[in-house]
Amino acid sequence: MAWNTNLRVRLPVTCLILQVAMVVLFGVFVRYDIQADARWWLEKKRKNISSDIENDFYYRYPSTLFLWIYWPSFNSASSFHGDAQHRAALNTYLSLAASVLTTVAVSSIIHKKGKLDMVHIQNATLAGGVGVGSAAEMMLTPYGALIVGFFCGIFSTLGFAYLSPFLESRLRIQDTCGIHNLHGIPGIIGSIVGAVTAAYSSPDVYGEPG
User: Fold this and answer.
1) CB 95 within 8 A of CB 62
2) Is residue 2 a part of any domain in this protein?
């Protein structure tokens, strides 16, 4: 089924993508507000723990693997059957692969001893799937999907390394599951990518409507 390139269709679709992104981001930051409880900071110091995320590594390994493998099914489930679903799955895998490579590279670069931080590996490696979600079925081209995953992996890893500790130490806001770094930041990137690809769609790329 060809993509409808009529402006009367493309403009509402672009606005819908942005609205969905805003709803998701709203939910993320509302969750932040709920978790911003001053008492957890004192409890953390008393027990000498940094975060619950460090205590369940071995439970998270299989989950990360399954999510990485099946993430293309999330992004392609709502696409039209045929080429759109194939593009969604392919773009998602390419973006995920790029986010894995950049996560591993950035994690080792910012570590003092060049080691990998498993919090980064278990979370930021999935950022590419989040970032490409809104435009997965679009004509991103392989290099476009790789670029999306590249930036999602970088910013997600840096978020875990620097933003989360800053929020905890300065603002006393605890991101218990890395929601902002895995879904918030890539969600912002994805909303931009989705809006741009929808706005620049043309009959030369998607064919005539109908």
Assistant:
1) no
2) no
**Residues 6+ away with beta carbon under 8 Å from 64:** 121, 122, 123, 125, 126
Asked whether the whole model's pTM tops 0.85, one would answer: no
pLDDT digit string (tens) for 19-71?
777 767 766 665 555 555 555 555 555 444 444 545 555 667 778 888 899 88
Instruction: Quote the tokens at residue 49.
Output: 């723990």
With b for 16 or more beta-carbon neighbours within 10 A and e for fewer, the 186-203 pattern comes to bbbbbbbbbbebbeebee
Beta-carbon contacts of residue 17 (< 8 Å; ≥ 6 apart): 134, 191, 194, 195, 198
Q: What is the CATH number of the domain that holds 32?
A: 1.10.3430.10
CA angle 54, 146, 204 (to 5 degrees): 145
Q: How many domains does the chain have?
A: 1
Domain containing 78: what range?
Answer: 7-206
Q: What string of H, E and C letters represents the secondary structure of 133-197?
A: HHHCCCCCHHHHHHHHHHHHHHHHHHHHHHHHHHHHHHHCCCCCCCHHHHHHHHHHHHHHHHHHH
Q: Note whether residue 29 is domain-resident.
A: yes
Give the CB-side neighbour count of residue 128, counting CA atoms within 13 A.
32
